[in-house]
Amino acid sequence: MTPIYQTSTFAQEAPGVHKGYEYARTQNPTRTALQHALAAIENGKYGLCFASGSAATDAVIKLLNPGDELIAANDMYGGTYRMFTKVFQKYGLKFHFINMQNANEVSKYINKNTKLIWTESPTNPMMNITDIAAVAAIAKKNHVWVCVDNTFASPYLQNPLDLGADIVVHSATKYLGGHSDAVHGCIIVNDDVLHEQLKFIQNATGAVPGPQDCFLILRGLKTLHVRMQRHCENGEKIARWLRENKKVDKVYWCGFEDHPNHAIAKKQMRGFGGMLSFTLKDDNIDAAKKVLSSTKLFALAESLGGVESLIGHPATMTHASIPREERLKNGLTDSLIRLSVGIEDADDLINDLNNAIG
Ligand SMILES: Cc1ncc(COP(=O)(O)O)c(C=O)c1O
Description:
The structure is a single chain. The protein is of the alpha/beta class. Helix content is 36%, strand content 16%. The protein contains 12 helices and 12 strands. The protein has helices spanning 29-41, 53-61, 78-88, 105-108, 132-141, 192-205, 211-221, 224-244, 262-268, 285-294, 324-329, 346-357; strands spanning 46-50, 69-73, 94-98, 114-120, 145-149, 167-171, 185-189, 248-252, 275-280, 299-300, 310-312, 337-340. The strands form 2 sheets. It has a 7-stranded mixed β-sheet with strand order 1-7-6-5-4-2-3, with helices on both faces. It has a 5-stranded mixed β-sheet with strand order 8-9-12-11-10. The chain is globular, with a radius of gyration of 20 Å. The chain starts with 28 loop residues before the first helix and ends with a helix. Bound molecules: pyridoxal-5'-phosphate (PLP).
């Protein structure tokens, strides 16, 4: 197995003569092995690892300069929205949050200052789909980078670089690690110059992961394909079961034939994953809270993508940092419940939900 190089520094033979490693913020052999593995599974040339998905996002935004403009999906992980609006806006970056379900919308917001288009697909938690190839084609024409947060799909189901994106970001805390035991993030790119710039930011600002966490993510990657197959199977069974349940109102899952962008999901993904959200017919926060506190197999917790199933309440948990009016505009109601369907027995999971929904 790849050794865990638990060291902060590396002995050198003479001043300026080293064996490829000088100081562990800059490089670490365990991290190098993981960076190569991540690049390979995203069909990219270069991987760069970070201390969290948020640190990876932060590094991408640091490519930009004051006055630059960024177009982002209006439905994405709340922490990304928080970083853009509360951390980076004050440095003179301008963000346009738009509905990216129709790729052509993007063109309306491109001007000479636009440098980056940021999207997630499927989005967290509304499971909206962006046509990555269509957005990338518009971006290319205008010399704008496209970054896709591919956390929800994982490289097993979708490879944004193959669809024309320039940058892929993951919260490796989720499906890549897969066991809810490490916080980690990564960036994958093809372009040499972009890689050099991001590597510089990685080293200069230093949000790097330790070797133990790199080892855990490396181990997680070895079962990604098997886990994702089961996440997809269980996700589909639960989505279809929820849809038949009389107490359930809307179910958001991009595998439904009548999902607004199902055709695009089918075109750009190899499966629909294990993430889904739903609302109750009794659309009030207390009814939702009762379900959220009643499951026994689905643990009530933040995060997603681990082998164990999780249930969450975006309005008060993952997306609490988005103002309520903004959330409601995108359908993220107070009673919305999000599931990260794990790899347990699907019938056990359905039983658990059945008991909780009542
Ligand atoms: C889609 C998505 N992107 C990025 C992040 C941030 O990742 P991390 O928690 O590893 O910083 C999350 C976290 O939930 C996420 O769901």
